[in-house]
Amino acid sequence: MMDEGRIAFSVGVELSFLTERSQRDLLDAIDLNDCTPSYSQACRMHREAGTITAERISEIMAEEKPNQREQIRLRREDFRKYFPASYTAQQITRDIMRGLELLKRQRDRDRDAR
C-alpha cells in the first residue's frame, strides 16, 4: 500500500511491526471500512502488535477520524453581502449560528402546528 501511495511511509513503518496475520486482518478492516489507518491508529496497533486481535483491529479502524468527518465549507464571498464589512469571522459565525437557531425554531413551530 505504501508503494501504491495509499498509506504514508510513517504509517507503513508502524504497521510493519504487526504479524502477517494481523496485517491480513488489517487489510480486511481497510476494505470493510473503506479507509486506511491514520498514523495515530497505526501507532496504537503497533503498541499492541504482540497481542492484537482481528476484533481490536476492526474496532480501531471503525473509529471516526477528524479528517473524515463530513464538513460544509462556505465561500466568504457567497455570504459577505449579508454582513457589515467591519464584521470579523467570529461575528459572522455567531450570527449564522443564531440565524440557524431561529430557522430551527420556526420549522419546529410549523411542524407542531400541523
What does this structure look like?
It is a single chain. The protein is an all-alpha fold and 114 residues long. The chain is built from six helices and no strands. Helix 1 (9-15) packs parallel to helix 3 and helix 2 runs parallel beside helix 4 (54-61). The mean pLDDT is 90.
Mean pLDDT: 90
Q: Please trace the helix and strand order, writing H or E for each element.
A: HHHHHH
Helix content: 55-70%
Q: Which term fits the overall shape?
A: elongated
Rg value: 23 Å
Q: What number of domains?
A: 2
State the main characteristics.
single chain, 114 residues, mainly alpha, 2 domains, 6 helices, 59% helix, elongated
Topology (SSEs and partners):
Elements: H1 9-15, H2 20-33, H3 39-47, H4 54-61, H5 76-79, H6 89-113
Helix pairs in contact: 1-3, 2-4
Quick overview:
The chain has helices at residues 9-15, 20-33, 39-47, 54-61, 76-79, 89-113.
